[in-house]
Amino acid sequence: MEMVSRGLAGANQAEVGTVEPNAVECGDGMVCVIGQELPSLTRLRATANHELTLHVHDDQLKCIACGEPWPCERASLAAFTLGAL
Description:
By secondary structure, this protein is α+β, with helices and mostly antiparallel strands. The protein has 2 domains: 4-34, no CATH class; 39-84, no CATH class. The protein has 3 helices and 3 strands, in the order E-H-E-E-H-H. It has helices spanning 13-19, 39-54, 73-84; strands at 4-8, 23-25, 30-34. It has a 3-stranded antiparallel β-sheet with strand order 1-3-2, with no helix packed on it. The longest helix has 16 residues, at 39-54. The radius of gyration is 19 Å and the shape is rod-shaped. The relative contact order is 0.15.
C-alpha cells in the first residue's frame, strides 16, 4: 500500500518537482508525495516501538516499567497500534 505525505504547496514548485518526482497537486494548496509515509505515522510507529521496548515482563510476568500484570495496558496499546499501521 502506498502512503501519501503532504507538504505545503507554497514551497518552491521546481524544487518539489526535482526532489520528489512523484509530487502531485492534491487540492487545497497541498502537494502530495506518493510513496512517503506521513510524519505523524512515522512518529506514532516510533512511539509504539519505544513503549514496547520499555514495557516487557519479568520472571513473574509483571511489566518491569509499570509493575502491572503483563501485558500491561501500555504494551497492549502499543502492540495494537503497530498492528494497525
